[in-house]
Structures are given as structure tokens and as C-alpha cells.
Amino acid sequence: MIPSRFLPRPPNKLFFHHNVSLTVSVAVGTPLQNVTMVIDIGSELSWLHCTTRNTTTNMVIPDPLFNPTLSSSFTPIPCSSPTCTTRTRDFPIPASCDSNNHCHATLSYVDASSSEGDLAFENFRFGSGYIRGIVFGCMNSSFSSNVKGDSNTTGLLGMNLGSLSLVSQLKLPKFSYCISGYDFSSVLVLGESNISWVGPFNYTSLVQEQDRLPYFDRVAYTVQLKGIKVGNNLLNISDTVLVQTMWSGQTMFDLGTQFTFLLDPAYSALREEFINQTNSTLRVLDDPNFVFQMAIDLCYLIPTNQSLKLLQNLPSVSLVFDGAEFIVRDEQLLYKVSGLRRGNDSVYCFTFGNSDLLGVEAFIIGHHQKQNMLVEFDLVEYKVGWAKKETQPHRSWFSGTTAVVEVGEAESTAAYFFFL
Ligand SMILES: *[C@@H]1O[C@H](CO)[C@@H](O)[C@H](O)[C@H]1NC(C)=O
Ligand SMILES: *[C@@H]1O[C@H](CO)[C@@H](O)[C@H](O)[C@H]1NC(C)=O
Ligand SMILES: *[C@@H]1O[C@H](CO)[C@@H](O)[C@H](O)[C@H]1NC(C)=O
Ligand SMILES: *[C@@H]1O[C@H](CO)[C@@H](O)[C@H](O)[C@H]1NC(C)=O
Ligand SMILES: *[C@@H]1O[C@H](CO)[C@@H](O)[C@H](O)[C@H]1NC(C)=O
Ligand SMILES: *[C@@H]1O[C@H](CO)[C@@H](O)[C@H](O)[C@H]1NC(C)=O
Ligand SMILES: *[C@@H]1O[C@H](CO)[C@@H](O)[C@H](O)[C@H]1NC(C)=O
Ligand SMILES: *[C@@H]1O[C@H](CO)[C@@H](O)[C@H](O)[C@H]1NC(C)=O
Ligand SMILES: *[C@@H]1O[C@H](CO)[C@@H](O)[C@H](O)[C@H]1NC(C)=O
Ligand SMILES: *[C@@H]1O[C@H](CO)[C@@H](O)[C@H](O)[C@H]1NC(C)=O
Ligand SMILES: *[C@@H]1O[C@H](CO)[C@@H](O)[C@H](O)[C@H]1NC(C)=O
């Protein structure tokens, strides 16, 4: 069978649900304009929807917008600039020249939507930090994907390893985030975290590509998966499934994907073992027509009045990496499908799915499993770590030298923005 193509980024970016994206409030330009941006560790170029006029009607296209014509610090980047010729080297679609000799970028996504715009320098204020001359894309057309559906979102903050990502532009030695599983607040820390409210970290090395492989995303946060355990049982999954080959096998940490997706041989082994170990306590929803979010095919019927007790007695699922285990337990294993009832039962779905159903030839560790953990990316020692949140950060943590920017819309997960 011909593998479904794992396209280079950004086409494999997946925004399942705009209301599970992590957003931050940022101020841009001179004078400052307030914008809301989705944080995405799988993308490189940060971009904003810019005001444009329809060339036929001369009408302003309405949307949440950044208006570059009102900013004195907005500086378009010419095609001849080294920023355009060399720093765009990691873009999946090469930068080109528009009719004004401005550096032109095209972004395209897995749902066939795309956006075009010009690169420019602009000043950004993140919390209390004001940074001049950040390269971003001033996009002139809208996405048809879910990013656009989030009516309060003006753009996206690209945080992957590419040469023009925010992480690279700010030369960050580290960044970390914690997504709350209980409310909509989250924390994004740029720089050293030094956080006292988490337990010890488990670290695994980030993997660099050895050979030039056509379907390997070189600028993603890639780790090496070694195995999967259910309870104490290590599943029988061949190494040939877990290592990167010509066509598949990359394991990526992602923030734009809600759940975790595994290549079919690994997913099938996990599904079978999890069903086996839970068959005396949980009832599988036996309905071949029900596939949650088009990609999750294992769901359960749980009496509404018993959900808590059942969830707390599930076997854990561990992702075993080089040097570290990532353990998923309790509510992080089953996700309650909001508003869906079958008789007196609620429907809960397994938070691991089959990559094949997504058409992605890779392992993707999504953000649901990372709730209530601090996930840290160390770009000096080139490793990723995770630690459990042990206590609620004291309110004083959100004040002092660090600045709380703003909590976004209640429907989105909003992040506090810190420079430490
Ligand atoms: C956001 O997600 C919740 C469930 O998590 C759902 O009930 C709600 O309808 C969603 N909102 C939108 C605008 O999709
Ligand atoms: C931008 O946000 C800040 C802080 O939330 C607020 O004080 C300011 O009035 C806002 N500016 C505009 C133009 O909305
Ligand atoms: C501009 O307006 C024309 C006429 O209303 C319309 O057909 C066209 O799609 C519009 N273009 C854009 C980019 O919105
Ligand atoms: C704006 O978008 C249209 C099509 O989406 C494209 O043809 C045009 O070149 C773009 N203009 C700029 C300045 O990016
Ligand atoms: C880290 O936090 C501890 C206690 O909160 C403090 O004493 C120490 O100075 C901090 N270190 C850095 C590098 O900020
Ligand atoms: C693991 O799977 C392989 C191939 O599917 C099989 O040959 C082998 O016997 C299995 N090992 C165990 C311990 O079940
Ligand atoms: C289910 O578990 C039992 C005992 O734990 C084991 O004998 C059996 O082989 C398992 N079945 C599958 C399909 O893994
Ligand atoms: C349930 O699991 C037990 C062992 O854990 C196994 O013996 C039994 O066959 C399983 N039943 C079903 C219906 O899979
Ligand atoms: C849950 O409700 C069912 C009836 O729907 C009842 O028989 C059962 O005792 C209840 N269980 C608990 C733990 O309340
Ligand atoms: C739901 O629970 C109620 C009361 O516990 C019971 O009377 C009813 O028969 C149950 N309905 C189904 C479909 O099981
Ligand atoms: C770190 O790994 C150890 C065992 O390898 C495990 O017991 C512990 O729960 C892990 N911690 C986290 C936060 O995943």
C-alpha cells in the first residue's frame, strides 16, 4: 500500500478545534495595536491578518486585523534582503518576490486552505518586554481553516526550530508552557523557567535528522519513541515502526493537535491491550459509525454517575522515550464528549488515535496529555522535559517583575506571557 503522504510542515498542521488552541494577547506596531495570536510550536512564521482592500471594490475586508498603514514602525522586507534570501530557507514553500519587490510568503495547510502575504519588520510587545524588528508575515488573505473560525484571533505565533520562528529570532535558550486541565488559564514562559510549583523533570533528547529524508520535518520538536506500556505491560511493537524511515516514523511534540496520534501498528497494539485491561470495568461504545473528530475510533459508554470512580481506576499508558517516560493517567486518558448522551451514559473517547485516520505518517504527541504539566524545551542542551504540576502557583507568581498580559476569551485557552 502506498503510504499516505506525510507532507512537510505546515501542511500537516492540524487545528482540530479552535477553542482548544492556546492564545496570547500581544501589542504590535507604533502606536500599539492589540492582537490575539495562537501559539503554535509546529509553525515557523508568525503572521497577522493585515487590513486589505478588495482590489475590485476597494472595500476593506473585515476581520480581526492588524493595520500596517497605521504603524510608523512597519517596514516591509525587500526581496534582495538576506532575511528574504537566506533566513526563509526552512519555509516549506520558498519565498518569492511580489510586484513591489517585497518578500512574499505563501502558507498552505492540510485542509487545502492557504494564505499569502509579505514579510515585514515590526515591533512587538510581549508582556513587559518590547522587542523591535521582529520578522512576521502580514497576510492579505484569510485562511478558510479553523484558525480563521476563531473570530478573536488575529494571527499565529510560530515557535518551531526554523530560522525565522520567534524562538530563533529571540535566540531563546529555553521556553516552557503549562496548560491547565481545570480552567482556561495557562502559562507560557520565554526563557529560564525556575518554577517551584512542579515536581522533577523527565528529559529526553531532541532528535536531529541524520540523512535528508523527504518526509522528515527538520524544524519540528522531534523525540525518539522507544515503546509504549499499558500498566506495566510493554507492548510488542517492532523497532521498525518506531524509528524514522524514508516514509514515516517521526515523533513530534505538538501544541496545535489536541490528542495523540500513533502509527497504525503501534495504535492497534495499544488499543487491543487497553481494551483487554479494561474489559471488566468499561463498556466499549460499539458503533462503527461513530468516529470522534474523524480520527478517534475507541470510545466508551460510562454511566454519568460513575465516571469519576471509573476514570481513577484506569491502567496508565506510558510513552517510553530515550531516557524518560511520559505517563498518562486518569482524565488525561479518556475525554468526555461534550453534550453527547446514550441513554443514561456519557460518551468518553480514548485520547490516543490512529495517525492513518488523519493521513499523517508520524507520531504526534498532542496537548491534551500534557495538561497540568510544565513542558520545557531546552534549546541549548537540545532536549525536552516535562514535570507534573504539584501545587497551584501562588497568585504572587503572576506579579512582580513578570507581567501578566491578559487572559483571552473564555472559550480559548488563554496564556499568561512571561519573560523570566
Ligand atoms: C468549545 O468546546 C466546547 C467543549 O469543549 C463546546 O461545548 C463548545 O461548543 C465549543 N465552542 C465552539 C465555538 O466550538
Ligand atoms: C490594548 O490593551 C491594553 C491593555 O489591555 C488597553 O489598556 C488598551 O486600551 C488597548 N488598546 C486598544 C487600542 O484597544
Ligand atoms: C472582491 O469583490 C468582488 C466583487 O464583490 C468579489 O467577487 C471578489 O471575490 C472579492 N475579492 C476578495 C479577495 O474578497
Ligand atoms: C494578496 O492575495 C492575492 C491572492 O490571495 C495575491 O494574488 C496577491 O499577490 C496578494 N498581495 C500581496 C501584497 O501579498
Ligand atoms: C530561582 O528561584 C529561587 C526561589 O524562588 C530563587 O531563590 C533563585 O534566585 C531563582 N533563580 C533564578 C536564576 O532566578
Ligand atoms: C511480537 O510480535 C512479533 C511479530 O508480530 C512476533 O513474532 C513475536 O512472537 C511477538 N513477541 C511476543 C513476546 O509476543
Ligand atoms: C488479554 O489478557 C489476557 C490475560 O491478561 C491474555 O491472556 C490475552 O492474551 C489478552 N488478549 C489479548 C488480545 O491481548
Ligand atoms: C477480558 O479480559 C480477560 C483477561 O483480562 C480475558 O480473559 C477475556 O477474554 C476478555 N474478554 C473479552 C470479551 O475480551
Ligand atoms: C447510578 O445510577 C444507577 C441508575 O441509573 C443506579 O442503579 C446506581 O446505583 C447509581 N450508582 C451510583 C454510584 O450512584
Ligand atoms: C435511566 O435511569 C433511570 C433512573 O435511574 C431509569 O429509570 C431508566 O430506565 C434509565 N434509562 C435507561 C435507558 O437505561
Ligand atoms: C518520569 O519517569 C518516571 C519513571 O521513568 C516515572 O515514574 C515518572 O512518573 C515520570 N514523571 C513524569 C512527570 O512523567
Automatic annotation (TrEMBL):
<dbReference type="InterPro" id="IPR021109">
    <property type="entry name" value="Peptidase_aspartic_dom_sf"/>
</dbReference>
<keyword id="KW-0064">Aspartyl protease</keyword>
<dbReference type="InterPro" id="IPR001461">
    <property type="entry name" value="Aspartic_peptidase_A1"/>
</dbReference>
<comment type="similarity">
    <text>Belongs to the peptidase A1 family.</text>
</comment>
<dbReference type="Pfam" id="PF14541">
    <property type="entry name" value="TAXi_C"/>
</dbReference>
<feature type="domain" description="Peptidase A1">
    <location>
        <begin position="22"/>
        <end position="387"/>
    </location>
</feature>
<keyword id="KW-0325">Glycoprotein</keyword>
<dbReference type="InterPro" id="IPR032861">
    <property type="entry name" value="TAXi_N"/>
</dbReference>
<protein>
    <submittedName>
        <fullName>Glutathione gamma-glutamylcysteinyltransferase 1</fullName>
    </submittedName>
</protein>
<dbReference type="InterPro" id="IPR034161">
    <property type="entry name" value="Pepsin-like_plant"/>
</dbReference>
<keyword id="KW-0378">Hydrolase</keyword>
<dbReference type="Pfam" id="PF14543">
    <property type="entry name" value="TAXi_N"/>
</dbReference>
<dbReference type="InterPro" id="IPR033121">
    <property type="entry name" value="PEPTIDASE_A1"/>
</dbReference>
<keyword id="KW-0645">Protease</keyword>
<dbReference type="InterPro" id="IPR032799">
    <property type="entry name" value="TAXi_C"/>
</dbReference>
